[in-house]
Design goal:
With 214 residues, the protein is mainly alpha-helical. 64% of the residues lie in helices and 12% in strands. The protein has helices at residues 25-29, 37-98, 106-109, 148-213, and strands at 112-117, 123-128, 133-139, 142-147. The two termini are 61 Å apart.
């Protein structure tokens, strides 16, 4: 992320600069006659950059919150297919051992009837035969086939990575909003200090003028 010139070297683990709290405005600008226009402009630039980070992180958080349930559902479905295949394999092994046709194993041989989504409001019914292979969308109109164990490993790694990314995005978003608040407070304090300084100077000038006239 872009550096913020008014900030120091302190950063969070992802490199987002920390905003210092300006406790003494006069000391920060270099004395009672210091210029506030430059620091105020830098504060506004910092606030704009923090707001940009806020927007980017908010979008990232929403994207991950939409993506994680899809990955989790896909993983659950592939795990279900694996369990179904394993049950069928176990039933076949028992059938071979007994050398007879067990009617109770027919349920494992029947195709799986399910529904799949065509769009947000339209679903269709389909029958799934037992399979050792699934096809996964990888994005950018790319779909690849995977053996079921390989697909489970891939989906679990993607789910872990997405959940970790969501956690860091939330942490960064909270951090950025804290720094944004600090910079807004700094801006308000410096502006109010300058208003007070101008008022005191004007009062002093008027007093000096009256004294001179008298």
């Amino acid at each position: 992320m872009p550096p913020i010139p008014t900030l120091g070297q302190d950063k969070n683990p992802r490199g987002i600069p920390k905003a210092p709290f300006i406790a003494n405005v006069e000391e920060y600008i270099g004395g009672p006659d210091g210029d506030v226009e430059g620091p105020l402009k830098e504060f506004q630039d910092a606030i704009a950059k923090y707001r940009y980070m806020d927007g980017s992180l908010t979008q990232r958080r929403k994207a991950l919150e939409d993506k994680i349930p899809d990955i989790r559902k896909t993983l659950q479905m592939v795990e279900f297919l694996k369990q179904r295949r394993d049950r069928k394999q176990k039933a076949d092994d028992q059938e071979d051992d007994l050398e007879e046709d067990d009617e109770n194993s027919d349920g494992a041989k029947k195709p799986l009837t399910t529904t799949f989504e065509l769009n947000d409001t339209l679903f269709a019914e389909a029958q799934l035969d037992d399979t050792d292979t699934v096809y996964l969308w990888l994005g950018a109109n790319v779909m690849l086939s995977y053996e079921i164990p390989e697909a489970i490993t891939l989906l679990r790694s993607k789910l872990d990575a997405a959940e970790t990314s969501l956690k860091t995005a939330i942490e960064d978003l909270e951090f950025v909003r804290e720094q944004l608040t600090v910079m807004e407070v700094n801006t308000a304090r410096m502006y109010n200090w300058d208003v007070k300084r101008r008022r005191e100077r004007r009062s002093a000038e008027e007093a000096a003028k009256r004294e001179k006239e008298s």
